[in-house]
Amino acid sequence: MAPPRKLHIKSYGCQMNVYDAQRMVDVLTPQGFVETASVDDADLVILNTCHIREKASEKVYSELGRLRLARDEAAQSGRRMQIAVAGCVAQAEGEEIVRRAPVVDVVVGPQSYHHLPELLARADAQGRALETEFPVEDKFGFLPQPRPETIRARGISAFVTVQEGCDKFCAFCVVPYTRGAEVSRPVAAIIADVERLADNGVREITLIGQNVNAYHGDGPDGRAWTLGRLLQRLAAVPGIVRLRYSTSHPNDVDDDLIAAHRDLPALMPFVHLPVQSGSDRILAAMNRKHSAADYRRVIDRFRAVQPQIAFSSDFIVGFPGETDVDFAATLALVTQIGYAGAYSFKYSPRPGTPAAEMPEMVPAAVMDERLERLQQLIDAQQSAFNKAAIGRTVDVLFERAGRKPGQLVGRTAYLQPAHVFPGPGMSPDALVGQVLPVRIDSLERYSLLGELAATPPQHARPLAATGA
Ligand code: SF4
């Protein structure tokens, strides 16, 4: 039998890429590949790229420069290393990668990685293989299921893609071009995935999609199901104790999703709901198709049914034409909503998007100053939110033993890391996968420290952040 070939995947960016990297492993495992943590002893290196961050493609080319050296070293010791570029940069720059980086054997877009075995074989035969078309077939129908031992090794939390692509065309965003039009997976396929994960020890599922709450997959009754309805069904899968979903668009929050937050104890009261700006003028220029007031109303609908709910968001500062008045509206919105955390970035143009053609770029120094002010406000809110847990008893889903002997690490409903020492007679390993009440004593940076509590969590005092 041929010795296993070693596979190293370096993944950048969003949860979807983390999920795709796992599925690439599932595709290549039956081909005799095993994962390695080291580039240097890999027979195949895959860069699973992200196009969201600034200068994404330049970063890929410099990484490829480093890989060329690793490949030369492997060749000197008589070993062949293949290199593949996958993900959104591969989709956006396919031919350009082939032209600029001869070291690359395979370029594969996010909708085609189920073809990796054939592409590697084609690269062997022809020197190169490129596939960045959106294939007619659904890749999910062709992806092998992960092996039970692989699922167990990945831990008690898992991502499941339910939807891909986006039809919203926000002016700054490449996703509609790199991931294509919105497509939802059928309900039955998602239930089967979740049941299989639960049977192999997974306790928490995060449903993912670029625009996850636009989900409209075919249901077993022949009708399109909403995300809320799908969540209701998945909450009934034995073994699943926590459900999450990401990333949502405010315009796609419907009654079913609100009802799911009202009715499902397994659905965590923590929602990532990007808004990008608090200025209606900038929201219109971004083609977001909602106002700041619309966004506030959506937040209010969640809060009306689930007082424990907390939010995170995404912000872009310095979008073309953003004035001091526009930026002040963003600060006002953040202050009013009160976030448990948020991601904020300076605007940078993405080639091929409408915003990249817009004049009135905001000077870099102004962007820097605005970003700093926004991040200070968000940090203060996050810190207040985390401090509010001290002295309370909260539910923690335990994920793994900690780095210190006898320590156990888990997460709260709000994804805050929580650390406890269960004490003598209690094996940390036996508690992994359980939701247990923890009395929080203190905070160390972003982690909560506490001890297992005999009493159930207190929900009397809402944990939602208040504006700083
Ligand atoms: S909704 Fe999200 S994924 Fe879709 S275009 Fe806008 S920012 Fe991009």
UniProtKB/TrEMBL annotation:
SMART domains reported in the protein's UniProt record: Elp3
Cited Gene3D superfamilies: Methylthiotransferase, N-terminal domain, tm_1862 like domain
Keyword Hydrolase: no
E.C. number: 2.8.4.3
Cofactor binding notes: Binds 2 [4Fe-4S] clusters. One cluster is coordinated with 3 cysteines and an exchangeable S-adenosyl-L-methionine.
InterPro entries (UniProt xref): Elp3/MiaA/NifB-like_rSAM, Methylthiotransferase, Methylthiotransferase_CS, Methylthiotransferase_N, Methylthiotransferase_N_sf, MiaB_methiolase, rSAM, rSAM_horseshoe
Record-given protein name: tRNA-2-methylthio-N(6)-dimethylallyladenosine synthase
Residue span, MTTase N-terminal domain: 5-125
Pfam families with a match to the protein in the record: Radical_SAM, TRAM, UPF0004
Taxonomic placement: Bacteria, Pseudomonadati, Pseudomonadota, Alphaproteobacteria, Hyphomicrobiales
Role of this protein: Catalyzes the methylthiolation of N6-(dimethylallyl)adenosine (i(6)A), leading to the formation of 2-methylthio-N6-(dimethylallyl)adenosine (ms(2)i(6)A) at position 37 in tRNAs that read codons beginning with uridine.
Native source organism of the sequence: Rhodopseudomonas palustris
Family the entry assigns: Belongs to the methylthiotransferase family. MiaB subfamily.
Cofactor: [4Fe-4S] cluster
GO-annotated cellular components: cytosol
Subunit and partners: Monomer.
